[in-house]
């Protein structure tokens, strides 16, 4: 398989290499599991066989759902369960990890992200830090609390 990829890409310039979706997913998995250093080492030793990291990032951007800060996507969970004929009875877990917080502007949602979101009825208030003006953003820095933990909520089906 790797030989075939190398043969197909041998006569092309490096920005014209082609990889199908299955291969991109495989190399993306390799990058996630092995880390950047391993991936760069393999890439330098297997020229024209492994896509560049920027190609993988572009693939992710084009084929992934953008996650919004604080959003619990219950409709997507329901659709996922229905498409796979799984029971709509799941367990939910939460995990947190300490982060070096960073405040940044998300142009896609027009929000300032990285502050701790206030809770309403136990769930994050997702439309809280909207970047409506420079003055508003300055106010967020005065009143907002920078997040120091990242949380993830996982769902899994039960064997019932």
Outline the structure in words.
The protein is an alpha+beta fold. The protein folds into 2 domains: 2-63, no CATH class; 74-157, no CATH class. It is built from 5 helices and 6 strands; from the N terminus they run H-H-H-H-E-E-E-E-E-H-E. It has helices at 2-9, 21-45, 53-63, 74-83, 134-143; strands at residues 90-98, 104-106, 111-113, 119-120, 123-124, 149-157. A hairpin with a 4-residue loop joins strand 2 (104-106) and strand 3. The two termini are 41 Å apart. The mean pLDDT is 85.
Oligomer: single chain
Question: How helical, in percent, are the residues?
Answer: 40-55%
| Strands side by side in the biggest sheet | 1-6
H-E string: HHHHEEEEEHE
Determine the N-to-C terminus distance: 41 Å
Number of strands: 6
Shape: extended
Describe the structure concisely for a colleague:
The chain has helices spanning 2-9, 21-45, 53-63, 74-83, 134-143, and strands spanning 90-98, 104-106, 111-113, 119-120, 123-124, 149-157. The chain is α+β, with helices and mostly antiparallel strands and 160 residues long.
């Amino acid at each position: 398989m790797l030989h075939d990829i190398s043969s197909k890409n041998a006569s092309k310039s490096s920005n014209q290499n082609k990889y199908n979706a299955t291969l991109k997913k495989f190399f993306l998995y390799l990058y996630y599991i092995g880390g950047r250093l391993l991936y760069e080492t393999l890439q330098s030793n297997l020229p024209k066989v492994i896509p560049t990291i920027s190609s993988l990032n572009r693939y992710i951007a084009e084929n992934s759902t953008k996650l919004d800060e604080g959003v619990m996507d219950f409709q997507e969970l329901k659709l996922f369960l229905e498409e796979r004929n799984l029971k709509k009875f799941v367990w939910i877990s939460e995990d947190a990890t300490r982060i070096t917080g960073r405040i940044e502007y998300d142009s896609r949602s027009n929000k300032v992200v990285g502050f701790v979101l206030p809770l309403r009825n136990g769930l994050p208030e997702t439309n809280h830090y909207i970047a409506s003006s420079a003055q508003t953003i300055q106010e967020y820095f005065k009143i907002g609390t920078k997040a120091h933990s990242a949380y993830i909520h996982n769902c899994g089906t039960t064997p019932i």
